[in-house]
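S.,

As promised, the 6-O-phosphono-beta-D-glucopyranose run. Input:
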Amino acid sequence: MAVNPLRDELRMHRVPGPCAMVIFGGQGDLAGRKLVPALYNLYLRRLLPTGFALIGIGRRDAGGDEGYRAEMRARCESFSRTPVTEVEWQGFAAMLHWITGNFDDAATYAALAARLAAADTDLGTAGNVLYYLSVPPSQFPVIVDGLGDAGLAAETDRTFRRVVIEKPFGSDLASSAALNASVHRAFAERQIFRIDHYLGKESVQNILVFRFANGIFEPVWNRNFIDHVQITVAESIGVEGRGRFYEEAGALRDIVQNHMLQVLSFVAMEPPASFDAEAVRDERGKALVSCRPVRPADVVRGQYVAGHADGRLARSYREEEGVGAHSDVETYIAMRLLIDNWRWADTPIYLRTGKRLPKRVTEVAIQFKRVPHLPFSYAAAEQLEPNVLVLRIQPNEGISLRFGAKVPSERIQIRTVNMDFQYDTAFSSSPAEAYETLLLDVMRGDGTNFPRQDAVEESWRIIEPLLDSWQLQGGGPHHYEAGSWGPEAADELVARDRRRWRRP
Ligand code: BG6
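Predicted complex:
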């Protein structure tokens, strides 16, 4: 691929030093769909270090290095954002290796140590390693102990060892703290990267730039001007063969506790003193500290039943593979949150997320208050809606502002119009996948876009009353048809406050 010489210097600042990356669960869904395609794209963008190796580990035999390469090629052909070409693939594939082994077997770690030593010699990985735990949460402590016991977590003055842990980090407040303690048995805090891929999305990172690089939004970004906020993470897909995982997680642990509360922390935080990792993480953490634990009465759970989604007949959640025939796990959540501080007091934040909704859309809508007095007739302003600022996280990443405008005519007639900014028309390049950004961050040792343990625990604290109440009372979810916007009870939740959900 030709490199623009004018941009080459820019690129050189971003290429991390040599390292090996080890993926536990190297054949899993996340590795094949996201991680390996992200690495392949970094390779195409010439952002992978020159000395690099990727070592997949798993219980199933992948057919040695060659088998693993062929399998990952097929996954990249399906999931890479840029097409796989023969020449580039050959260069990338030469860095891929496979180890078959159980995570609780010391022999697996001995084989890994040997493979890492060979990568240092053959591929110049310089003793630096990042371990990616792309496995079910119950395996995290086993692997961390295995690495620790084998001496594979120890850094030297000149080499790093880092560990990346997928969400959800724990399954409630207590288990999250316990998991943290067990990871700390082998790794120091600066070596630990708790990943939440929403923080790698350009449009999420842009919330900070939008708020703090512009003078006109921050003065109105508070309870005096904002009526309420709606955060929506809607997906048209179902559980996509991940039924077993989903049965343990549900929408609350899969999306709300991490992705949604992290996005909320960007929207609600105070301006940091600098863009330094700790300064930003301190402010995001403080926003979560101010969140009041949610009341079960302010939450609606839903589960999809058969219906039409994505133009096809979709089966019900209970009929998905790996899901119990009587499962009460939620695939939809709507909730009302309050933040107890000077900026947000009494300004409700409504969150909703669901699978099998009519379309895929993630957005933050800042709904402003109505004007205190309208000097126009009711008839003229009948179609006027209050101002809304919408941060579109995906797809069609962008920002739009809704305001009233005079309809061209000899009399006053007001209609609501939109002013729109779209990433793909404003900038010529399409945004990188979140995992590309975050993997580069880990290689460089930059923790800005990774939640710290305090933020993870605050998020569990906020939803803890729900876990307790569901455990005690059972209470099944409301049902909604696949392809609809969720249960009616969710509309009633906001109608109670004389508000309604936006149709994104
Ligand atoms: C993952 C969840 O973290 O995020 C999935 O486990 C969900 O259930 C996915 O589909 C959504 O990610 P994105 O980037 O497509 O919004």
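Residues 235, 254, 362 surround 6-O-phosphono-beta-D-glucopyranose (CB under 6 Å). The longest helix spans residues 243-268.

- D.
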